[in-house]
Amino acid sequence: MTYTNPETIALHGGSHRADPNTGSVAVPIHQTTSFQFQDTGHAARLFGLAELGNIYTRIMNPTCDALETRIAQLEGGVAALAVGSGQAATSFCVMNLCEAGDNIVSSTDLYGGTYNLFANTLKQFGIEVRFVDPADPEGFARATDARTRCYYAETLPNPKLQVFPIAEVAAIGRRLGVPLIMDNTAAPIICKPFQHGAAIVMHSTTKWIGGHGTSIGGIIVDGGNFDWEAGGDRFPTLNKPDPSYHGAVWSQAAKPLGPIAYILRMRTCLLRDIGAPMAPFNAFMFLQGLETLPLRMERHCSNAIRVAAYLSSHPKVTRVIHPSVAEGEARRRAEAYLKGGQGSLMGFELKGGKEAGQAFIEKLKMFYHVANIGDARSLAIHPATTTHSQLNEAEQAASGVTPGYIRLSIGIEHIDDILADLEQALS
Ligand code: PLP
To answer: Whose CA is nearest to atom 9 of ligand 1?
Structure first.
C-alpha cells in the first residue's frame, strides 16, 4: 500500500516492513561495516551500479536505508541520503553541484553554522556564496549568472522566523534553470517544500525528527523534479563524464534507477570520498523519533501559539516573534507555506535589554538552557551572549538579534507548566 498521510508514513513508510530474516518489526540496527556478496557476479554488479545494494556502511546501510526511504516519502521526494550531521548535509548539498569558480545564491536568513560554512569555509574551496535578502525574491534573479549552481534557503529561519518565499524563488530558479535547495529543519510535517517547487530538501535530523536530543544527523531528499540534463553546462558534476567512476555521466547513468541523478552522485562520489555517513545506531534513533513526529509537531505548534499569545500580552515583553503573531507579508507567507501549525521556535524581546535577558534565563526552572532546538523538552537561550556573541552589535541587529532577545524552542510538556515557568522567570 502507498500511504499519503504523514502520520501513517512516519510509521509504515519506506522500504522496511519486517526484517526478512527474523521478522523483527522494529528496524534492526545493522551495526556492521561490510556486507557479504552472494558471488563475484553480484559484487561486480553492485560496484558497477547495475544493481543497487549494500557494499560498505560508509556508502549504504540497511538501517540508514529504512530512514532514508521513510523520510523521502514523508517529504514527497524520490530518494534520500542520510549523513552524519545537518552541517554535513548542507555541505554535501552544495559540493554535489559546485566546482572551484562556481557560485550559489543564498538567503541571508540562515542558521549561524550554515552562514559560517557559506561565508568562510566554502571560500577556501573557491566557491562563492552570494547573499540575498529574501524580502525581495527578485534579488535571487539579479545575483544569478552562468556559474550559479543552486539557490539555498531555510523554510523557517531563526531568529527572524519569517517564512521563506519558496514558490516565488523556486519559480525564478525554474525560469533560469537553477534548483532551489530548502533547509526544512524547523518545519517538518508543516511545510512541504517540494509542493512549492523546491528541487532538494535537507534536514538536520538532530532537531524535531530526532526530537529527543540524543543524536546528531542530517538527511538530503531528492525531489526527482529537476531536469539536470537539460541544464547542460550549468551542472558539470552531473553532465560531464566523471573520471572517478569510469567516465560515468550521472544524469545518464541514473536513468534506469529513476530521477535520482543528484542523490545517486552524492552517495557514490561524496560519501565515498569525503565520508560523513550517518551511524546505523543514530539512524535507529531517528526512526524512533520519526514515528511520533506528526503527533509531536501538533503539540509543539499548539503550545507555541499559546506561549506567543501569553508573551504578547505580558507587560515586560516588548515584541514577540512567531508566525502566529506576524503581520503583513510575513503573515501572508506564513499562511501560504505553513499548514497544520506554525512551528515551535519563538523569539521575544525583554524591556531590560541584555541584563534582563540573562536574568530571565537564569531564573528558568523547567526550560533547559541549551544551544539546541526541536527537543520534546522546552529550551531557551539568550543569543546575544551565546550563539551570536561573535558578531558585533550592528551585525547582531542585522541578523535579528537584539540585546534583550530570547529564543525559545517550545516543547510538548503540558501548556500550564510551560506558562508557569515563563511566568515565574519573568516575575
Ligand atoms: N540547519 C538548521 C536550521 C539548524 O538549526 C542546524 C543546527 O542547529 C543545522 C542546520 C545544522 O545541524 P547539525 O547541528 O545537525 O549539524
So the answer is: 86
pLDDT value, residue 391: 76
Q: Which of 109, 110, 184, 206 to mutate to test the pocket of ligand 1 (most atoms within 8 A of CB)?
A: 206
Q: Give the pLDDT confidence score for residue 185 in this predicted structure.
A: 98
Q: How many domains does the chain have?
A: 2
Q: Whose CA is nearest to atom 12 of ligand 1?
A: 86
Ligand 1 centroid to Cα of residue 300, in Å, is 18
Give me the DSSP letters along 9-52: HHHH-SS-SS-TTT--SSPP----SB---SSHHHHHHHHTTSS-
Report the pLDDT value the prediction gives residue 1, as an integer from 0 to 100. 77
> Which of 281, 308, 332 delimits the end of a domain?
281
The Å distance, Cα 326 to ligand 1 centre, comes to 24
What is the amino acid identity at position 126? G
Q: Cβ < 6 Å from ligand 1: which residues?
A: 85-87, 111, 113-114, 154, 183, 185-186, 204, 206, 216, 218, 373
Whether residues 259 and 219 share a domain: the answer is: yes
Please say whether the beta carbons of 169 and 151 come within 8 A.
Answer: yes
Instruction: Find the domain containing 409 and state its range.
Output: 294-426
Residue 303 lies in a domain: yes
Place of cell 536530543: 213
Return averaged pLDDT per consecutive 10 residues of the chain, 427 residues in all. Answer: 93 94 96 97 92 94 98 98 98 98 96 92 97 97 98 96 98 98 98 98 98 97 98 98 95 95 97 97 98 98 98 96 96 97 96 91 97 96 87 81 94 98 97
158 and 211 co-located in one domain: yes
In this structure, the residue with its CA closest to atom 4 of ligand 1 is: 111
Q: Which of 89, 71, 26 is nearest to 284 (CA)?
A: 26
